[in-house]
Amino acid sequence: MRSAVPVRTARGILDRLQGGVVLGAEGYVFELERRGYIKAGPYVPEVVLDSPDALRELHREFLRAGADVMVALTYYAHRGKLKDVGRENDLEAMNRQAVRIANEVAREGDALVAGDICNTWAYDPKNKEASSKVVRAMYEEQWTRASTS
Question: Which of 37, 59, 120, 146 is deepest in the core (most CB within 10 A)?
Fold first, then answer.
């Protein structure tokens, strides 16, 4: 019996690069903001939990447009940004769901999945050593939670 969900592609990024250009999907935050699913200002990807079908559809649009890599909508999904909108307790669920949705749609085609991290105001060039540790811990928490999905 054939699975309804295609098996993850065996063609990795290096194989694809040997064949030429590898196109990654990007622009999720601003496109979903334009469609009314993300609030301008904080740009926190609450859509991942609040309207997952809108995110799925955008992934599918990128896939149909020829993207080889679906980017999980984990941009601005770290504890500091989530705290700004009162959703810091959604860190794990939001990141895992973003990765899960990206994988789901990637399997509909022959696409890879990549994560996404964002800039942060936590880094202080005047205090590189201490602030680097804070930033690293922030991203490690985010990505560790997302990658276990």
Answer: 59
Report, as an integer, the average pLDDT of 33-37.
Answer: 95
Q: What is the DSSP letter of 20?
A: S
Q: pTM (2 decimals)? A: 0.82
Supply the CATH number for residue 110's domain: 3.20.20.330
CA distance 21 to 72: 20
Give the per-residue pLDDT at 90.
Answer: 94
Contacts with 48 (C-beta within 8 Å, 6 or more apart), sequence order: 55, 73, 77, 94, 97, 98, 101
Nearest Cα residue to 83 out of 131, 120, 123:
120
Determine the pLDDT at residue 9. Answer: 61
Cβ atoms of 74 and 47 within 8 Å: the answer is no
Kindly give the interhelix angle for 91-106 and 128-147, rounded to the nearest 10 degrees.
60
Locate 52 and state its tokens.
């997952």
Separation of alpha carbons 39 and 55, rounded Å: 14
**What's the domain count of the chain?**
1
pLDDT band, very low/low/confident/very high, at 124 (cuts 50, 70, 90): confident
